[in-house]
Design brief:
single chain, 4 helices, mainly alpha, 42% helix, 6% strand, two-stranded antiparallel ribbon, elongated
Amino acid sequence: MYYLDLNFDGDRLDLSKYLEPYSDDRDPLTSDFLMQIMDMPKGGEISLSADMENRPDLISYSLYGSTKLWWVVALYNSRIAYDEFKAGDKIKYPDKSQIEEYFFTAQAKIKLEDCLAKRVKGMSDAG
């Protein structure tokens, strides 16, 4: 039997994995990738404590059990700098299950696109 280990803290949720340079014209920053994260339904809201001020990594850890999703917290709250997180601020966040589902869907879509591109290239090379 297989299951998803939501407590796994590997690199599968690391943003850099999705921002690696591509050899084609696909660019995750101009695609709908980041917009999909921002448009996820709100999973909840917390008020930042003093120890979380200027620390999106700690906010991520308290919400998701991993510091690797700090960028989701920042993006979801339209904040671009760590010093925009102040004690007492209300921070909204998506559920981890929604993030996981989107990552797996995006990853599968990228693999499918790559596979199709290789097949098309192979067919054009053969013809």
